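User: Second chain of the day. Same drill as before.
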Amino acid sequence: MRATTIHAPYDIRVEDVPDAAVRHPKDAVVRVLRACICGSDLWAYRGEAEREPGQRIGHEFLGTVVETGSEVTGLRPGDLVVAPFMWSDGACEFCAEGLPTSCPNGGFWGANGSDGGQGEAVRVPHADGTLVKLPAEAAGDDRLLTALLALSDVMGTGHHAAVGAGVRPGSTVAVVGDGAVGLCGVLAAKRLGAERIIALGRHQARTDIARTFGATDVVAERGEAAVAAVRELTAGHGAHAVIEAVGTEQSMRTAVGITRPGGGIGWVGVPHGSGTGLDMGVLFARNIAVRGGVAPVRAYIPELLPDVLNGTIDPSPVFDLTVDLAGVPDGYRAMDDRSALKVLVKA
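Assistant: Same format as last time:
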């Protein structure tokens, strides 16, 4: 089969690799119908996250089950399924507590020895605990399939940030980061009842999506200028809830600076760079809570899925460029130079 591999910084290839196959009784094999490129994939692409030459890449996909192991009971060939960006057994105490990302039997697509999502098929360990069945009729709806793909990562991650930040009905929310996760954070905040949503971003195509998703205000400034602008919009107080969806020291400093005393920060930007930007003295003095981390999207899919199916939320606009599998290297280049927000990969 064909799959995407990474060999060095800026060296992404689509190559022939061994076919995905059942190796253990709890495995399933999924033929990929939709995959995509994530902003976090760019850290490996740029050489900021270490990978071995030839390692698979990609962690967001949905598709059709083509084979199951002897101990898989909840799935059968032909089922349409979406996969969260990590697999988990669904049976351990962490899975029971809603934190499948800490499952001791879990793992991350594209890790050494595992298949990546950007390929023709994927071997899924612990298939019953990992995969979520979708209505069969969704396979014939192109827009809906694209929206459902967002449940594999960015929609659930945006939701995790909103929950961690403490978004509640009537609250004012600020979103730091205009990438796909930040935009889904806007959508999640709107779904949770935020009255005012301030999107921080300077790319009009992205802030236009933010407004479509529910943003009431846009702040194009950065750093201290952004802090001043948000405070001016909030009578000097800041936002009740702030979503941090970038992961740099500057973005976290901005998040802290625009959080209202007693407010919260939902931190989902993958940390990179020299520091966190967290001043413990400021957090203490202003009673600011910080929650977040790796989003347990498998736990959120059952909650979010009905709203995607009925159209209450539609994250599909975050995908603004479509390629086939052979075009994946071009998709990485487009996201790297910011000519694309998030690239959809169609089988």
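The first strand starts at residue 2 and ends at 8.

User: Great, on to the next one.
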